[in-house]
Automatic annotation (TrEMBL):
Lineage: Eukaryota, Viridiplantae, Streptophyta, Embryophyta, Tracheophyta
Residues in Inhibitor I9 domain copies: 37-118
Protein name per Swiss-Prot or TrEMBL: Inhibitor I9 domain-containing protein
InterPro entries reported in the protein's UniProt record: Peptidase_S8/S53_dom (IPR000209), Peptidase_S8/S53_dom_sf (IPR036852), Peptidase_S8_subtilisin-rel (IPR015500), S8pro/Inhibitor_I9 (IPR010259), S8pro/Inhibitor_I9_sf (IPR037045), SBT (IPR045051)
One BP term from GO: proteolysis
Domain Peptidase S8/S53: 140-250
Record keyword Membrane present: no
One Gene Ontology molecular-function label: serine-type endopeptidase activity
Amino acid sequence: MAATPFLFLIFLFNFYLEIAQAAQYTAEITEKHNLQTYIVHVSKPAGTFSQTHNLEKWHKSFLPFSMASSEKQQQRILYSYQNIISGFAARLTKEEVKAMEEIDGFVSARPERKIRLQKHTPSFLGLHQQMGFWKESNFGKGMIIGVLDGGIFPSHPSFAKAMKGVADEPPIDVDGHGTHTASTAAGSFVYNADTLGNAKGTAVGMAPYAHLAIYKVCFGGPTADCTESDILAGLDIAVQDGVDVLSLSLVDVSMPFFKTT
């Protein structure tokens, strides 16, 4: 009978340990559900942080102290932008963003928006193949057009067969929108083109002699949204690559057009 108090203490210890673990698990689940992707703008760093390879370290310095480990920081930081803006995209709670506002160098932060693919036609520009500005521009020869969209069908007749590059994700266009916008921008001359045997003619982009640089920033098909963080990451790389023109056939239906920049 003397062992009973000892066994009782073990039971209590295990009981409270399970409660603590359950509470921690519940807190982690709650935090996960409260996380949002924020676009965070910070001032440009000075000194040692100004080097490109140290920018990510500068951006991580704005994360809460509770994420001191590099593993936790890496899970939260989605993109550390190098060129297009001074800032980063990260998964944060409202409370963490509020605390971040007190850190020197913080400029602003807001939840990212969802951007949708936009369909448009260039015919209103009034370009003519045999005369005027289009011909005088040499059809874009030597220019590099960066297309940020849902990918491309490389085998499409509007594009040259010579392609090179790398891709973290399959660059294939799921719904045709990326191929449509890329061919509108710089599709080669395709003679005797038609749609199901109708409307035969010449299909050509606005700058058929230009080069295309394709950046897949939209995933999931025709009804999917394109996240701001992915779009900014694509812009960041495109600027680094040195493209001459950027093509983004995207629209944010949640706000007026003049505010979507």
